[in-house]
Amino acid sequence: MRFTPKSELDQRVAKLQDRLRQQGIDGVIIVQNADLFYFTGTIQQSHLFVPAEGRPVLLVKKSYERAREGSALDNIVYLDSLKEMTAVLQTYGYSDFKTLGFELDVLPTNLYLRYQKLVSPANIVDVSPLIRTVRMIKSPYELEIFRDVAKIHFEAFSFIRDNLREGMSELKLAGLVEAFSREKGHPGLVRIRGFNQVLTQTLVASGENTGPSYFWGAVGGKGVSPAFAQGASDKLIGRNESIFVDYGFVLDGYMLDQTRIFCIGKLPDHLVQAYAVAVDILEQMKQLAKPGVACGKLYDLARQLADESAFGKHFTGFPTPLAFVGHGIGVELDELPVIGHGFETPLEEGMVFALEPKFTFPDGAVGIENTYLVTKDGLETLTVFDEGILYV
After folding, report:
1. pLDDT of 15-27, one tens digit each?
2. What is the mean pLDDT of the chain?
3. Which of 76, 216, 269, 329 is the most exposed place for a label (fewest CB within 10 A)?
């Protein structure tokens, strides 16, 4: 179990403060768990105040003891009531705010209205883009965790290859993988920022069950009921069909994302051909991906190559295609940058993102997904398991 070092937290806070000063924002109050963990090292029920100048204050409701254990911040205080927040901040010299930032992309409206009354007459602004931009560039400390996650990913896909059997249900395979993962330290949860999006720990979808769902990914899976219409189902895995496994291990808060295609027997020709196109798209995106290249250009290249193939209408989801082919990743699955149409954010050293060219058909889905680190020379592949169709 890692505890985020104080030096790491200090660097993250300093980067956020620099952006606050650039925007003329007096401070920010952070409440969402992923952001709290990133800037404090704990997710205990609390409010983190980060001033544009000065040291942050973590105001903890529950559990104060665990917050003290997990966070290396200097100022950690107990806050019995939200009504006392501004008074407590005054004791640290923080008052008379003109502008305060909140995570308005995830903050419920009723809480927003409550905070608005609490901090009046300060003007509330959205600092979600600033926070997510700070989180977009990974530190050496974070990269160390990613490399440890990558080792477990290799073990997990090896486990799938060795334990996949004809006639087992998708749920059975997912359950085996999740038991393996839990014993390796997976918390059993995957954080995702998108509204109304939840994510299963392991997506197993075979044959016709790899079709569309409400989930914003190209492949959703049928799930166990209309109430949870995503992920593995009770369908039995058969021969000569695609077995789509999308997996993310979480270690010390951080995750990678990886997809591989398995098959028992022989995969139909159109799926084999589409898979070859997906691999080619991935390779050409990797060649293009250098620091300074706009994220949208990677998507545009992928879309062009898919349309030049025989399978363009099946790219990134059928019958409803998505306008992205990759996403940042870290403490949440859907971080910045977005590798999608119209996104002009240039690639930078230290970004970590997944690229996932995939094709979906009525009888199955194929594709590949790896997570990459942007270096000065291009992309370093973090998820290195065999990239061919895995016949078992």
Report:
1. 999 999 999 999 9
2. 97
3. 269
* Residue 250 parent element (H or E): strand 250-251
pLDDT of residue 76: 98
Instruction: Out of 3.30.10.20, 3.90.230.10, 3.30.420.40, 3.90.226.10, select the CATH number for domain 140-391.
Output: 3.90.230.10
- Cis status, amide bond into 51, omega within 30 of 0: no
Compute CA 270 distance to the chain's CA centroid, rounded to the nearest angstrom.
Answer: 31
User: Would the pLDDT of 305 be above 90?
Assistant: yes
Fold observed for domain 6-135: Creatine Amidinohydrolase; Chain A, domain 1 (3.40.350)
Cα–Cα–Cα angle for 377, 378, 384, rounded to 5 degrees: 120
Is 0.90 surpassed by the pTM of this model?
A: yes
Calpha distance 252→16 (Å, rounded):
22
Helix axes 128-136, 6-23, angle to 10 degrees: 130
Q: List phi, psi (to 5°) of 79.
A: -125, 110
To 10 degrees, what angle do helices 295-308 and 269-288 make?
150
- C-alpha to C-alpha distance for 270 and 283, rounded to whole angstroms: 20
Q: Which of 46, 296, 14, 290 is nearest to 134 (CA)?
A: 14
- Give the alpha-carbon dihedral of 264, 265, 266, 267, to 10 degrees: -20
